[in-house]
Amino acid sequence: MTQTHPSSNSPRLEILQLGNPRLRDTARAIASSSDPALQALIDQLLVTMHASNGVGIAAPQVGQPICLVIVASRPNPRYPDAPEMEPLPMLNPRLLSHSDETLKGWEGCLSVPGIRGLVPRYREIEVEYGDRHGNLRRQVFTDFVARIVQHEVDHLKGLVFVDRVETTRDLITEQEYQKLLS
Ligand code: K1U
Ligand code: ZN
């Protein structure tokens, strides 16, 4: 049978929901990228993110408190100009610098279903991270992709987007969000 993705035999994992105290833990650094368990977890995160229609996911969201995130931008109704990218696993991501400019934009979270929030984020960031093979990379991200990276890195610190809104009036239901798009 033809596989649409190399990881499609991996199981989909349960995503922790807001209120689960494990979502608030600080993640620990990854020591070795060659650990087969780490490679298996990356594949499981890819399957879980795709199955949940996400544009990103962080290991703590599936109860694994390690510094691993995946970023996978694609164009969508709110961000039609967002780039379509191959999912990017990032090990031990570290923010090196950021623009002075921040932008407020709508976010969702797989751990907070049914709620959207207007969140201020840096428009441009430079990040150091390891790729899935452990090669150290430095990369600049802008706009929607920078937003996803910052959202995912927050998960490594036990932070969720609802912690970042300027006022709770910037939190709305999915139903009201859909009205904004039409
Ligand atoms: O970490 C996560 O919970 C994944 C989250 C990432 C994210 C979405 C929007 C802005 C910043 C970060 C999601 O993918 S939630 C799914 C979703 O609501 C969405 C999907 C495509 C475009 C926009 C939102
Ligand atoms: Zn999230």
Describe what you observe in this structure.
- It holds the Pfam family Pep_deformylase.
- Keywords: Hydrolase, Iron, Metal-binding, Protein biosynthesis.
- With 182 residues, this protein is an alpha+beta fold.
- It is built from three helices and eight strands; from the N terminus they run αβββββββαβα.
- The protein has helices at residues 36-51, 143-156, 174-181; strands spanning 56-58, 68-71, 88-98, 102-107, 115-122, 124-130, 136-142, 171-173.
- The strands form two sheets. It has a five-stranded antiparallel beta sheet, with helices on both faces.
- The structure holds ligand K1U and zinc ion.
- Residues 54-58, 76, 78, 107-111, 147-148, 151-152 line the site of ligand K1U.
- Ligand K1U binds next to strand 1 and helix 2.
Separation, N- and C-terminal Cα atoms: 40 Å
Q: How large a portion of the residues is in β-strands, by DSSP E?
A: 25-35%
Can you give the helix content as a percent range?
A: 10-25%
Structural class: alpha+beta
In what order do the strands lie side by side in the largest sheet?
1-2-3-6-7
Q: Which stretches are poorly predicted, pLDDT < 50 over at least 5 residues?
A: none
Radius of gyration over all CA atoms, rounded: 16 Å
What string gives the helices and strands in order?
HEEEEEEEHEH
Using the alpha-carbon principal axes, give the shape. Answer: globular
Ligands bound to this protein structure: ligand K1U, zinc ion
Biggest sheet overview? 5 strands, antiparallel
Figure out the total of helices.
3
How much is the average pLDDT? 95
